[in-house]
Amino acid sequence: MAETEEAHLNGAYYGPSVPASKSYHRPSRGGGPLGCCCSCIFSLVFKIIFAAVVFMGLAFLVFWLIVRPTKVKFHVTDATLTQFNFSTDSNLHYNLALNLTIRNPNKKIGVYYDRIEARALYEGQRFGTVTLTPFYQGHKTTNVLNPVFQGQQLIVGSNLLEEFNQQKSAGVYEIEMKLYLRIRFKLGRIKTGKFKPRIECDLKVPLNQNGNSVSTFQTEKCSVDYFNY
């Protein structure tokens, strides 16, 4: 009996074969068709955006080389102030006439001035407003406008009279003029949309009474802001 059991234990095994264990491979992150597709789309979008930026840059460069756009220039060349005084009720009585020159230096760009509003200010407070006649300005031309501010306006302020008396003693008043425009540009037959630039002119105007003044007015260049509001 012992020999039979020993022979059975030492003999070959003729049962069914044991299947080999399968190894498990964990999928890597970002791999597979989905990750590759997203990468391709991102690369394509980047290339399109880059090409559009380069194209726009080249188009702008070509436009600038051909047209050479230049800012329109504004100067106040003369100012006559014959009345500028406060009454006891804080009303400012004024009579101010200005010569404003507008120079379009562009060879291929014209300007439509659809609306021109001029405002006069003293110590930051507006005392006069006039609306000027619209016009078209051609290439390399100069136009002269003559805004006149006349009347009276209530103006109050803590340091207003102190500043006024100092300037009265000097005989020269610091007055600001602002232009509020609505304009369009014309290039050939093409007209742009409307722009609303603001022009600011800081003036030192001598009081001229009976044809006499302590000094002469000096031409002032105005600042131009095309995208102020």
UniProtKB/TrEMBL annotation:
Regarding the membrane, this protein is recorded as: Single-pass membrane protein
Q: Which residues cross the membrane?
A: 44-67
- Cellular component per GO? plasma membrane; plasmodesma
Which Pfam families does the protein's record reference? LEA_2
Domain Late embryogenesis abundant protein LEA-2 subgroup, chain residue ranges per copy: 100-196
Keywords recorded for this protein, A-Z: Membrane, Transmembrane, Transmembrane helix
Q: Just give the chief location class.
A: membrane
Q: In which compartments does the protein localize?
A: Membrane
Gene Ontology biological process terms, A to Z = defense response to other organism
- Protein name in the entry: Putative Late embryogenesis abundant protein, LEA-14
